[in-house]
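LAB NOTEBOOK - FOLDING QUEUE
OPERATOR: T.R.
BATCH SIZE: 2
PURPOSE: Compare the predicted structure-token outputs for two unrelated chains run back to back under identical settings.
PRIORITY: normal
REVIEWER: second-year student, initials M.K.

ITEM 1
FIELD SEQUENCE / FIELD STRUCTURE:
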Amino acid sequence: MNFEWTTNENAKMTMTIYETNITLNKAACHYFDDVAYVLLGLDKDKKCIGVKPVTKEDLNHNIYDKSQLHRISLGKSYGRISNKAFIEQVSDLFELDFTQEQNYKFDASYDVVHHIMTAHL
């Protein structure tokens, strides 16, 4: 038998970049259930975006500068991080043209060791 198994699209983590925000699908939000803030980062060499949850403990110990914190808003089926300046930086660096496309959707993965969700552009 030569079965080709299909992917469960509901379990697939997705990061969608819009002109003003990054939206995570329900499967991706699982890692951000108990947080209100995240860090956003770019790896120019590997051409990827990183989103790191900031725990309440991190906030209580002032581990990260407040200027680095970005609020994540969680809905029933999505999570949204609004930061137009970051999106402009991403679109310039990776040549995303929002006049041509309304959004850009990327597969995401979560590094459980470093606690970072990444999407390769």
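ITEM 2
FIELD SEQUENCE / FIELD STRUCTURE:
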Amino acid sequence: MDSKWTAPGSALIVIDVQNDFCPGGALAVPQGDTIISAVNRLIAMADLVVLTQDWHPRGHGSFASSHAGHQPFETIDVAYGPQTLWPDHCVQGTSGAAFHASLNAIPAALVVRKGMRSAVDSYSAFFENDRRTSTGLDGWLRSRGVERVLLCGLAYDFCVAYSALDAARLGFATAVVEDACAAIDLDGSRVAQQKAMRAAGVSLLSA
């Protein structure tokens, strides 16, 4: 991996390495915990580290349990478009929402909590799923002179990919470290998002 991705002017964005996305969690990504050593190596090399954290209120609109007659992993239409329904996960203040104990969170300069509005889901580190509401991360990075972002974490085909596509659209040079990610792979979503990222100019790297 080119050292420019860890040099000043770059930021590492670690996406949602939380208990509920790891084996035994409410929305476990297969082998999600096996990436943590690679993620920690990237953290140790990074000039600037940002963590994101899914942080849903109880009864969030993305939970299948909030929609009578629907099951997890179904898709429904909501005000801002299609929404995949999920098992209840990363509920504010629960152990499932906490960062995995093996993640080295100490160097993080910022934690971006997302999915906090009950009616709107939020995959991207930069925008909620209405595609209008900003998390403020764009401005925070620019105020620190960041021009390049490197991403890793969970899940590759949802929150990592959405974040990478938004970063590229916002004008950051963007890369994803694929072997520091794990995917849900819902109906071929892993390959579809990999193609979308390549088409958007996102570099796909190995640690």
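REVIEWER COMMENT (ITEM 2): The two ends are 6 Å apart (CA to CA).
FOLLOW-UP: none requested
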